[in-house]
Amino acid sequence: MFDQLNAMLLQAARYLDGLASSTALHESYYLYAWIETTHVLTLVVFLGMLMVIDLRMLGLGFRSVPAATLARWLDRPMMIGFAVMVVTGIALFYAIPVRTTQSLWFRIKVVLLVIAGLNALLLRRYVSDTAQFWEHQGRPPAGVRLSAGASLALWAGVVLCGRAIAYDWFDCHKTLPGLLYKVAGCVDELAALEAAGG
Amino acid sequence: MVDLLPWFEWFDQSALATAAKAYGGVFVVVQMIHLLGLSLLGGMVLLCDLRLLGLLLRSVPLSAVARETRRYFTIGLLVMITSGIFMSGAVALKLYYSEMYWAKMTALLVGVLFVYLIKFPLLRHPGVELNRVARGLLASASLGLWFTVAATGRWIGFS
Fold first, then answer.
1. pTM here?
2. B-side interface with A, Cβ within 8 Å?
3. Residues A13-24: pLDDT tens digits?
4. Which of A3, A191, B90, B152 is the 20 to 30 Å CA partner of B145?
5. What is the ipTM of this complex?
């Protein structure tokens, strides 16, 4: 099933790659560079606000402001930053669809994003249900601190993977073990390796 | 004007530079640390400046926001300088000849002086209230300066 999914993803990526606007975006020096710059600099808005919230949830800063209140205030700028990152991220993917689809780092990044999103939903629900009992304390309950710590670690992983996409260490054209071809979705290379009896 | 080329040549041959060139995996981790430092530093600049503009945290005293953001700003700055020195080892000579690099360093120097000699000293005293125009000017100067530092920094990679 995983192989079929990989084949479908590759087919979709090749379709996007065949579109004129995808090629134009890839080959435009300034537009692509500006989109990438916007993507990276918006980290300041999104991750910057997220760090403030998580530091407060960890009890490490801004302790004079009630935790849930701070999170509510910073939610909008954080989500504006996140929206900009998603839009620019989709544009970056659209410019280089095939290589990105087959990027091990991009795939790990997507998985981490999903986990970070689930963690954020759980934390958000827990905070909105229970904050009245603890939000004025400097140090929130252990579960909240654990979730905030996990959030920081997960987003660090997302940044790491995002940065690593630029490097070709595990690109399909390299000679890799079959498992990595499979995980990265190198459909043709995996088929060739299996045909050769690897 | 003192020519810094010998320093860059020395740095290019140092053990640190050799390590930065040899280990791509380490380099990416340091880049991640640099970006996390950017998020922390930039987040603090943004938070304090949006408070100055009256767009966020209006009910929290300005001096309290300044005190908290100053602490994490300094941590972010130290993280960025440390990781930045390591990264520059990999491309020391390229940086010496890069206009964007010198633009960034100039903006960074101005930014650091502005933050520690003008911005935070003005906000230190709980009783002293700046008027709206002064707050707006302070926030705009700060946002403009740090945007320049970050954007020229990103552009080093493209040039």
1. 0.94
2. 24, 28-29, 31-32, 35-36, 38-40, 42-47, 50, 56-57, 60, 64, 68, 71-72, 147, 150-151, 154-155, 158
3. 999 999 999 999
4. B90
5. 0.93
